[in-house]
């Protein structure tokens, strides 16, 4: 399954500026286009790639 939907991009996340912070929350949502073949509900293994932009 190819997942390349620009509408799936979430809002920018500000990187923490406090010293010693090692965790970052990057919430996102994902969606898919259903096929014509009926499928049962279940879980899907997925990976997400995050591109960091430094300004």
UniProtKB/TrEMBL annotation:
GO cellular component assignments: pilus
Domain Fimbrial-type adhesion: 15-54
UniProt cross-references to Pfam families, sorted A to Z: Fimbrial
GO biological process, one term: cell adhesion
Highest taxon of source: Bacteria
Protein name per its UniProtKB record: Fimbrial subunit
Organism of this sequence: Salmonella enterica subsp. enterica serovar Bovismorbificans
């Amino acid at each position: 399954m190819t997942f390349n939907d620009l509408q799936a991009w979430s809002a920018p996340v500000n990187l923490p500026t406090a010293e010693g912070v090692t965790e970052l929350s990057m919430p996102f949502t994902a969606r898919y286009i259903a096929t014509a073949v009926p499928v049962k509900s279940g879980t899907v293994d997925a990976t997400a790639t995050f591109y960091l932009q430094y300004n």
